[in-house]
Every structure is written in structure tokens, then in C-alpha cells.
Design a protein that fits this description.
alpha+beta; 4 helices; six-stranded antiparallel sheet
């Protein structure tokens, strides 16, 4: 189901997330193919959050992450566990906010214009299935408001879809 969304991008982040969450509830459905859900989630986030220059998922396969649905410039296709911000989030099983990617040891630069990043793991039963990665061309673009709402979104995805289906996606 396509969901037409209109956002007031002039609102504070907290209020923008209040617009996003009900739409996210509708597009994350066990009735839709997982890859389609993830594609729509990235489109929603890229459209609603003007500070986001890139929004995408990396899907876990063994000890590596592979590029999944995304919105933005071309990106790194494979990230090893523990490498870069996404690999660190995968290893630690926690959200990571980076105010200045140039100061993050081992940062993988897919887009030289990126300045800050937030990475949220999609976890079910203690296992990381995917990583949601948001980049910005602004320094310190992401904060605790983003962490709180993005983690709610990640938990919604983990709760409403069968993440085991991600293992069947041909990578």
C-alpha cells in the first residue's frame, strides 16, 4: 500500500517525528514483501527529514552487511562487522550517533559530503538482522530526539515483520 505523506518540514524534529510514526505504522506491514517495506521506510525518512542526505538499510549476511534499499547517492556495497560506523553498530548492537564522521576512527566514506551520521541496528531476539543508516551533510545533525524516535521505528520493524525473511534475500 502506498502512503501519500505531506510533511510540514518547518516544524521542530520532535513534531516531524510525530508526523512520521503513524505513516511508519501503516507501511510496516507483515502483508508486504520485506524488501518493499524497507524501501518505503527509506523513502519516508528521506522525504520527511530534510537534514538527511542518505537513508538506507544494510542487511546482515554472516559477519558482513550488504547494501539494501536506500535513498541517496551510490553507497558502499559491503561493510565488515566492526568496520566503520555501521560495522561498529552491528558489533555493539547499539545505536551510534557521530557528530563529525571525520573524527570517527575507521569511518568508511561512501559520500565525501557526509558530515554526521546516526546508525540504528534492527534487532530481534538479540540478533542483528539489519542496520538503518542515516547520513547528513551537516555536522551534529542527529541528537537524542533522533535516537529515541529512530529506535522506536527500528523496534516497530523488528516487531511487525518477519526478519528471518531477510536471510532469504539474494545478496
Amino acid at each position: 500500500m502506498a502512503e501519500q505523506a505531506v510533511f510540514n518540514i518547518d516544524l521542530p524534529d520532535e513534531e516531524i517525528y510525530m508526523q512520521i510514526l503513524p505513516i511508519l505504522e501503516n507501511i510496516v506491514s507483515s502483508d508486504e514483501p520485506v524488501i518493499s517495506i524497507l524501501a518505503n521506510v527509506t523513502a519516508l525518512l528521506k522525504e520527511a527529514l530534510t537534514k538527511v542526505s542518505w537513508a538506507g538499510f544494510y542487511i546482515r549476511r554472516d559477519d558482513a552487511l550488504y547494501l539494501g534499499p536506500f535513498q541517496g547517492k551510490t553507497a558502499c556495497a559491503k561493510i565488515l562487522k566492526g568496520r566503520g560506523v555501521c560495522g561498529a553498530s552491528f558489533l555493539r548492537k547499539e545505536t551510534i550517533i557521530v557528530d563529525n564522521v571525520n573524527e570517527f576512527e575507521g569511518h568508511i566514506s561512501c559520500d565525501s559530503g557526509s558530515r554526521s551520521e546516526i546508525v540504528i541496528p534492527i534487532i530481534s531476539n538479540g540478533e542483528v538482522y539489519a542496520i538503518l543508516d542515516l547520513d547528513s551533510y551537516k555536522y551534529a545533525a542527529f541528537n537524542e530526539i533522533d535516537r529515541n524516535h529512530m529506535e522506536k521505528g527500528a523496534n516497530l520493524i523488528a516487531r511487525k515483520i518477519d526478519l528471518e525473511k531477510l536471510k532469504n534475500i539474494v545478496i
